Amino acid sequence: MLTDPVWQMTYGERAAFQGVLEELRPALAIEIGTCEGASLRRIARYSSEVHSFDLVEPQLEVPDHVTLHTGDSHALLPEVLERFAVEGRNVDFVLVDGDHSAEGARQDMEDLLRSDAVRETIIIAHDTANELVRAGLDAVDYAAHEKVRFAELDMVPGHLGHRQFPGELWGGLGLVVVSASDPRDADETAVRDWYAHHARALEAARDAPTRAEEHAALQERAHVAELRVAELEAELARVQQRKREAEVEALHHERLVRDLTRSPSWQVTAPLRALKRAARRRR
User: Fold this and answer.
1) What is the pLDDT of residues 22-42, one digit of tens each?
2) Cross-strand partners of 151
3) Is the pLDDT of residue 178 over 90?
4) What molecular function terms (GO) are annotated for this protein (predicted)?
5) What per-residue confidence (pLDDT) applies to 259?
C-alpha cells in the first residue's frame, strides 16, 4: 500500500480507500477511471467481480474477474448499469475518478444515483478538493434521492500542491452511502456539511499572498487618493481666501466710488461732465 509508485493517492487516501474495501468485500464493484491500474488492483483484490471504465484503453494485464470498458464512461456506464438492473444485481462499491470536469463529475455521480443497480452501495469519489470536480459533485441533488443515506465529500481532505502541481488543489476522498433498504429519515440531511469545506481553506491559503498584494495595492491607491484630496482641499482653501480678499477689496472700491459721487466737488462738476459727454456724442 505504501510502496506503489503509480498510485495517485496520498498515504491517507490509500489507507482509507483500502480500509473501506477490506470492510466491504464487494461482490460487484465498478471503477470509473482506470488510468495505470493502481486503484483497480486494490478493488480487484477485495472484490468478486470488477468493471473498470476509461476513455483510453489501459495497457494492463488483469485477472479474469476484471472487465475493462474502453470509451466514454458517460455513454458506457448507463448501459452497464441498466444491464445489472435488469438482471437484478446490486453494485456494492464504486470509485468515481474519471472525468475531472465539473459537468463530467456531476454526470458520473447522477448516473449512479439514478440507477436501480445502485441500491446498497458505497461510492467513493477521488479529487474532491479539486475546484472543478468539487463544483460538479456539489451540484448533485443528493436530497432528491431518498436512498442516499448521506454524502460526506470531505471524508479525507485533499491537499495544495507544492513541489508537484504547485498551487493546484488535488486529492481528497468523498463518501456517498446508498441504502434503499434503510433510507434516511425525513429530518436527516443528505449532505454532511457540519464543518468548513477543507478545500476552501486550502484555496484561501493559496490565494492569501495574492490577496495581500491586492490589499497593499488598494492601500497605496487609497493613500495617493488621500494625498490628492488634501492637496485639493488646500487649493480650495487658498481660492476661498482669495475670494474673501477680492470681496473685501470690492467693498472698499464701492465705498470709494460712493464717497466720490456724494462729494460737493463731484456734484459741482456734474454740468461739465454732461457737456463733455454731449460733445463726445456729437463728434
Assistant:
1) 999 999 999 999 999 999 999
2) 176, 191
3) yes
4) methyltransferase activity
5) 78
Domain ranges of the chain: 11-195, 196-283
Q: Are 268 and 260 in contact (CB under 8 A)?
A: no
In 3D space, the residue among 50, 52, 1 whose CA is nearest the CA of residue 26 turns out to be: 50
194 pLDDT above the threshold of 70: no
Which percentage of the chain shows pLDDT scores above 70? 95
Superfamily of domain 11-195: Vaccinia Virus protein VP39 (3.40.50.150)
E strand residue ranges, the chain: 28-32, 49-54, 66-70, 93-96, 120-126, 148-156, 159-160, 169-170, 173-179
User: Whose CA is closest to 110, among 91, 134, 136?
Assistant: 136
pLDDT in tens, 114-128: 999 999 999 999 999
* Contacts of 34 by beta carbon, 8 Å cutoff, 6+ apart: 40, 52, 53, 54, 58, 60, 68
Question: What sign for the dihedral angle of Cα 73, 75, 77, 80?
Answer: negative
CB 35 within 8 A of CB 70: no
Give the distance from CA 177 to its chain's centroid.
25
Take residue 219 and report the three cell numbers written for it: 492601500
The model carries a pTM of 0.71
